[in-house]
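If you are new to this repository, start here. Below is one unmodified record pulled from the training split, so you can see the exact layout before writing a loader.
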Amino acid sequence: MGNWPSELLQYEEAVSIQDQQRRTVSDSETNTDESDDDVVTPEDVVLEPQPPCHSREVVEHENPLPTCSKQKIQNLVWEVDVADFSPKRTRKKDTRRPASALRERTAQKKTASTSIKYIAPKNEATTQLMVERKVLDLKRWYCMSRPQYRTSCGISSLVSCWNYLFSTLGTGSHPPITQEEALTVLGFEPEFGDIRFGPFTGNSTLMRWFTKLNNHYRVRGRCYFLYKPHGRNKTFGVSSASALEMLKKGLQGDNITFIYHCQNHYFCPVGYEDVPLRAVNAYRTGLTQEEVETWILIGDTSRKHPGVHCKKWSDISTDLNCQSPDFMDIRRLDRGMQKRKTKKVGGNLHCIMAFQRSHWQGVNMNILRERKRHNVVTNSHTLSDKDSVETEDNESFEESMSSDVSS
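And here is the target side for that same chain:
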């Protein structure tokens, strides 16, 4: 901006002098009301001739507005209520117990402990008693055919069961057989690792193979579905509780084995454990099924999984009671309930099969041969004894005859 003109400066000085005069007059009038001081009358405004405008900046001073006194501006005060805007401060309730109450409580505990002594339960458990709750036959574990071929879990589990029932590795008298020997008997040829067993291996297939092995080795046994709640070959009238009871009873004996068909896999239960629900019953026996939680020990033929799985019976029962498309993988419980991509609804292939050795194994040819040889030997001895007796009788008869003649 350029310099201000001299005429404009003189004009501003005149206006400032008039303002000072007006302020002195207003201060001298003490009897007037506050409302009158704030009102500007036309008499207070003096119109002066305005100088010519030489620039645009002068327009701002053309109409000076009336202003109030500085003293009244300083006396203006606004009281604003901010209670609705600020959050209400609420004092939290103190939930802690007072120190006096804590002292009384601890004193009561001390008096109670001194008056009544705690008597810990005695541990009277023995091996014979704990066998009722914890069952694991090591012979079942020894007979597990592990590792298996890529998809041979079915025949590997079947060989494990057969060896336990009929071989010297388990509770039988025959030499143990291998997977390869069993596959050869069933009509398969090497390479066994290239055979895709999955498409043609099922529950009925394993039962049919069990019968073929028994006929080949001249042993007797039977197989059946222990628990299959849904689908073909459903076990009518068998509940989850009754199936668990039969499974535990079978694992306690030595003439029956089991195969559990789960999600795309077969493996063999080898034992169980009844875990009490209360810690104080850790060594107690004779507990009811309602007082314990049963865990099933399952031997796996696959080397890519643990050798022995330990699964709750409740989870196994849930797996067996699922119906398509819902299913549960018992070896991968972290995945929870899953759904198959299939249009089939209802039914379930998962089950528990039982393979049992018959008490009467038929006629043993070796025993027959031994008995026949024994009978031949005994008969020869009896014949020789009879001949010696007859000669003695003849001699005595001749002597008696000769004595009669002489007389």
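Two things worth knowing about this chain: The two ends are 196 Å apart (CA to CA). The chain is about 40% helix and 15% strand.
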